[in-house]
């Protein structure tokens, strides 16, 4: 798993690239605060090496809770900036800070 951040000097946004290795999976998405936990809005593209990846522009100076949804299974990112307990999900969510 990996999170790559690229801050844009001309706009108050950060391009965040989320990637997760899931060679056996057929679908993957990143869901979180920044896309209303919508799997369709967070679809990741599968690369030839089995990694799923996508880049999203997130407003800077914020923190966002998120999780990966891989073939219906929720997965946290081991490279997350932090983790936060979520009462609704009764689980920890990954946190990315930009």
For this entry, give a set of tags.
five-stranded antiparallel beta sheet; mainly beta; globular
End-to-end span in angstroms? 18 Å
CATH evolutionary superfamily: Immunoglobulins
Order of helices and strands: EEEEEEEEE
Measured as a percent range, the helix fraction is under 10%
The whole-angstrom Rg is: 13 Å
Could you describe the largest sheet, including whether it forms a barrel?
Answer: 5 strands, antiparallel
CATH class category label: Mainly Beta
CATH architecture classification name = Sandwich
List the quaternary state of the chains. single chain
Shape: globular
Describe the structure concisely for a colleague.
The protein has 98 residues and is mainly beta. The protein has strands at 2-7, 13-21, 28-32, 45-46, 51-59, 63-70, 73-75, 82-86, 91-97.
Structural account:
The chain is an all-beta fold and 98 residues long. It has one domain: Immunoglobulins (Immunoglobulin-like), CATH 2.60.40. The protein has strands at 2-7, 13-21, 28-32, 45-46, 51-59, 63-70, 73-75, 82-86, 91-97.
SSE topology:
Elements: E1 2-7, E2 13-21, E3 28-32, E4 45-46, E5 51-59, E6 63-70, E7 73-75, E8 82-86, E9 91-97
Antiparallel strand pairs: 1-2, 2-5, 3-6, 4-5, 6-7, 6-9, 8-9
